[in-house]
Structures
1.
Amino acid sequence: MSRAVRPLSDDDLKALLEQCRRDNAQHEVTGVLFYSHGNIAQLIEGDPAILEPLYEKISRDGRHSNVVQLVNKPIASRSFAEWSMAFHPLAEEGFKALEGFFLPQHAPSTPDTMSIADALIVDLVRQAVFGPSEPTEALPGPARQ
Amino acid sequence: MREQQLQSILRHMPAGIATLLGPELRYGFVNEAMQALLGGNTPEGEPLATHLSTLEADLLEVMQQVYQSGRPYVAKSYSLPLAATDDSPPTPRYFDLALEPLHDENDQTLGLLLFAVDVTAQEEARQRAHELALETRRLDARLRVLTETAPLITFTVDATGQHEYVSPQWYYFTGQPPTADVNAIWPLLIHPDDRLRVLYQSDTARANGVGWNYEYRLRRHDGQYRWVLSRALPELHAPDKPVFWHGAVTEVHDQRELAEALRRGEAELRFLADSIPQLIWTATAEGFIDYYNQHTSEYTGLSAQELGPTGWISLLEPREQAAAARRWVQCVGTGEDYEGIYQMRRHDGQYRWHIIRARQLTDTRGPRWFGACTDVDDQHRLREVLQTQYDELARTNRDLDTFVYTASHDLKQPLFNLRGLFDELRRVATFSDPEQEVLIRMVDEALGQFEGTLQDLAATVQSQRELAAPTETLDLRSVAEEVLLGLRAQVEELQAVVELHMSEAPTLTYGRANLRSVLHNLISNALKFAHPERPPHILVRSSLSETGQPQLLVQDNGLGMNLQTEPTPAFHNFERQHPRIPGAGVGLYLVQRIVDSRGGHLAVTSNVNEGTAFLVHWFE
Ligand SMILES: Cc1cc2nc3c(=O)[nH]c(=O)nc-3n(C[C@H](O)[C@H](O)[C@H](O)COP(=O)(O)O)c2cc1C
């Protein structure tokens, strides 16, 4: 998780999306990035030999600061098929057609191939970036016994 | 020729030269520079006074005096306004004016030689220097006020460590007299435990030409050692040698104590959390766990690293994980308390029941979560065992009821047959034995008792089922009249008088069947225990107790009984005392059960041969 040094404009986000889509596809890096009001969270999957230097590079990127690594662990298999980004552009029109872009409410739900503990990280991170979601879905009630 | 040359030189000299002749000081020779100075209008032979363009009157006077006294005079930095031109206002210029008397060969005063050198630049520089000096003094004063009033000690020290300057605060703080030798005494006032370190550090800093920044304890005037912060920076003199260090000593005792207390407090809290045999943890505002206590790793067999920011969820029973995770996300989003009871896996794989509770604390450092998992496995198991036993008992009870009900029902038929056979026997058979009348009556009675007991047994089971019946607001009089209708035969036979006084508390919220049962049993009881010498008189009164609770009195004038000591007797007393009256025990047992189960109680007072009074307290 991190904080943008200054709010990222639509163009900034678009540029980041395009560059990351290209570079991550080339290096077989998958995952998801959430952005909202300067809050950033990202999950990346891939070969450790690729990820370690990539994380180093990202954490030194001048566009954001307060970079915190929540977990770093080996996984048996990927949970994301590609790398995508979810955020609210000011002008949604230009983004609708972009590959790998989602509005936060349409972002792919946390894959159920993940362990519940890992999925919980993604859900908490999503909430930390976008704020609590209104209970739109008919979720089964909270576990109260 | 030489004269001409000289004149030309004089005329063009950059200093103003003029001769003023005679006591009227008439213009004589005036060179160009002087002409400019005097405003250009210097007609030779005219007296100076009539063409006093720019010269001040006082200067004219001085000139006349010089002329008369013959003593030369130099006016230094004399200000003369330079005539305004088209594009510049008159500006003051400064001249050194030399007034020299001119003499002839006979030493007679001929006039004056006026010599003016423009010293404007020098004068301006002098004035600037003066202003600078003033400003410097002002700044200096300000600096002194600041250094001497600020709540810190300022000092200047040279390369050898000698104090060049120490602000008065040093004397206030240390309580040393103004005559004290700062260099000798200062080191002695440093706490012995800090002294060597401080002296070494400042020495090293000076040797390396760098500043310093350290804390130590300095003895205050009252003998207390107070923590101070000493900071100094070198003043670099070109080319490289630092000559002085200027610095300040500030008291930081309270901050340090506070920080120390905070550190101690935090360490103590952590120690406390680590000593508690519960799983204790804290989480960030986003819901990620950032601390697990010692017991957590003992219980789970996993390190904080292995558990990770959400690892606790994987310890729960797998089927409970998803719901627990959802609830946690929700609580983090809303700030609501988290609470639930879950099975958590121990290091040996055993799942134990835990209550997990977490609450959000919001203070200046932003929200944080504090959580605890309490092992309630033993209680949980005990509760399960108790629940199982309770269920079993309830079932046994139900089975018993069913058995009694069925038995009483099943016995009715043979009893009925028996009664029929006996009646038939009595009708067809003839008995010669005079005792037989008695025997027949006894059999009759025994059969009747048997019948009554069976009925009561069935009623007990019935009422047991009705105990849980819903309540409604009942009119006591109408229920009592219904009951009396059922007892009409006995009432008439005994010529009993039954008085109903229900107006004080006319209604009661109760189960209808239960109320009927209570009234039926108490009234029929009063009829059963009637005194043989007088017709029964029964009083039924509904009223309110002192505390405003409804109560019901059923009083008779019957046989009465000996209650001995117990205020609330067990009702088999009746049976024991009146063995010939059937079914008394069961009826009262029923009343007591009903009243008890609804949260009330039954009281009784009685006198042998006078009567009995039952008081039903419907509710406590
Ligand atoms: C929040 C954030 C996330 C980023 N994620 C990625 C990423 O997943 N993959 C990537 O190649 N670059 C990512 N970048 C960009 C890199 O920091 C870096 O700018 C980019 O890889 C270009 O590096 P280069 O100039 O060395 O080619 C990210 C930058 C930011 C600010």
Note: Residues A 16, 19-20, 23-24, 29, 33, 40, 42, 44, 54, 57-58, 61, 63-64 surround flavin mononucleotide (CB under 6 Å).
2.
Amino acid sequence: MTTTSSSTSIDKTQKVSLQVPTTTDVPPFFAGLHTSYIAGLAEKLDAKTSYEGAVTEHLRMSGVYWSLTALSLLKSPEEVDVIMGLTAPTAGRPISIVDWVLQCYDNRSGGFGGNIGHDGHLLYTLSAIQILALADRLQDERFLNLKESVIDFVAARQQPTDGSFTGDEWGEIDTRFTYCALSSLSILKALDRVNVTQAADFILSCRNFDGGFGCTIGAESHAGQVFTCVGALSIAKSLHKLDADLLGWWLAERQCDSGGLNGRPEKQADVCYSWWILSVLSITGRVSWINRDKLATFILKCQDDEDGGIADRPDDMADIFHTFFGISGLSLLGHLHAAIPECAPFRQIDPVYALPTDVVQKLGLQGQIMVAQEGDSVEERLQQYDTLTSQHKLFQ
Amino acid sequence: MHGRKRTEYKHRFADPQVAAGLAQKAQQWYALSDKALSLRENDDASMTLPLLDKMLRVNPDPLHLWNIRRSQLLLQSDSNWLSTELALTAAGLERNPKAYGAWFHRKWVLQRQSITTQVSTMESLLQQELALTDLFLQRDERNFHCWNFRRFLVGLELQLYGGTTDQDTTTLGDGSWWMTTTTTEQVIGPQITAASKTTTTIDSNNTTKIHSILQREWDFTQGKIVSNFSNFSAFHYRSKLLLLSSFGDGNGWSPKLASTSTQSVQAMAEQEWSLMENIMFTEPDDQTIWWYHRFLLDFVVTQQQQSAADWYVPWLARQAETLQVLVEEDDSERGCKWGLLGWHLVLSRLVASSEENKEERHQQMETVLDRLIEVDPDRTQRYQIMKKQKQQKPQP
Ligand SMILES: [Zn+2]
């Protein structure tokens, strides 16, 4: 696959138009229920008697990030701040989320842990930085005092031998960590602290015959891992190294008869892949390679129509992870804006940084996207990025 | 949360007795969790290790608990903790076979062991470990954590015999995947930062051992594939092993670490095609084999020398005939989508390599694409791009 940089015509008026599915058995989007589900989650999980809270205690940082980002697509920033107690404590909680995030800083490692007193890890360091970005508190003096140590922690995770990243100082290598590192450093404007070219080359060494990527060299392709790899390549502005036609085809074949997407061939569909796959199709300009209406319908069917929240599959128990990925998936499909009047005024999700687009634009975050064909227009949410035009070689 | 039925789950929590039991478990967890964090300050292994043992058996996910455990283990003067750690990680993985932290801890323990242990002791330890992967892959043949762990074990085995020295890196073919021709890196990959690597020179005895390891792995994928043609994980691993293989003189597969001769590529391609042909006619709607087929076509091209064109074109032509039969005999409702895709792929390779029947083949490709749009309307956009591109740039 070869690609060339070119100035692609950008149609600012173009909107992704989607039909509201017309079949009668498609449920509506329960914006109000999801809002109350997310709003009630913190209090529920914080209770020392919550079983769910106890078993997910170690990844609370990511849970908070998923909650905040999902809610940001349903409510205005001011409402999100009040509902979640983002920058000031809300009723019943002693401290704000921002205060809590700063308490999760681990001064032994220099990274952020998943909860107070836990060890710093790239997974939670990225979530913490994303939360601070959402809260517009990257300039908070308390964070500025830690910032250099955080950057040191992230940069020190790169392995000089092959450019890969470890999650923490214990040495586990995974392409997820490459994404966490590049995204964190890009948000902190410190990408120059690592060897970005080598990082991208490591990602490419994890590519398989199907065009996808696994968690390390030799590992099977997995759609979740594909997001982290393509996201990292986007931030590294190295998308020209992708075989986007092959990868796009493999991802398009993840769509099952139910309309939902699976993560690997011959596996069951699951709402979380709506995000992992749509984000990559969006970055590579190939969202139209799947049936968008059928996917939106599948996500809507996974909602809990009593208590709010979205599950992995229809009739399963909802959780915040799938709620975030379901709502973000609908946003990438253009569905939240086109078909749901209550959501129309609010923010959209950015497929590279997994943050609301206005946050990405305000911070001036850099990256690269592709269009599938010369003349394709670029979605409004992607216009701050560099654009590549694909040169197809479908017959090779 | 994956695969929990909503009504059952809610019903379970609605039972006051169950709810009280779970609330108690949560409180116990938090008590242990607080204790673990406070004990780490004291470095008292006699209390910390049993506590962590208890916690990680119940929940093997929290990475920081594994970290605390490793810190404590390293402080102990008696470093004879292999068996306790193997037992603990096995118990954790019984609980959650996808726990990253537990798999990593097991790798960490084994890698440390491999530095200090005699070859013969290590050999038998690795045999036991391979048996554990057999067991976990019987329960879930697609568990990529376990497949990665197996490749990690093979990496340790090969290291015993000097089979993982780094040499030249070559980019193959269209660059859609990379390999190091003379090493096993592409099969194994770094999953953990390297401890001090032992460098053994490869003598002939070691070469025999390396060959038998690779042979065993090849046979392992074969067994998995025969028991279920849908096992994409096994085909994936096979695609990596193929890079290290040699097919010569009708003896079937044999491992080799040097470049492959034209003859052996032909023998391999014929053998793999006959396996595929069987599966394609048995399970034409299962996409697994079709991805592997595409890989084989690429692989042959990258390994093929010009002089072999007199074999390559007839080989493709035979495939085209077979796939035409498969497609035309199909009378299922689904319309043999994958057969059409496979046929199209083979035709496209044929017109790129041979002038013979070119016009007819172009016609067939056009017909196949039209048929694909009918049987697979969800992916129409991609087929349209393929059609359009075909009109713009007819193959030379
Ligand atoms: Zn999921």
Note: Chain B touches chain A through 79 residues (CB under 8 Å).
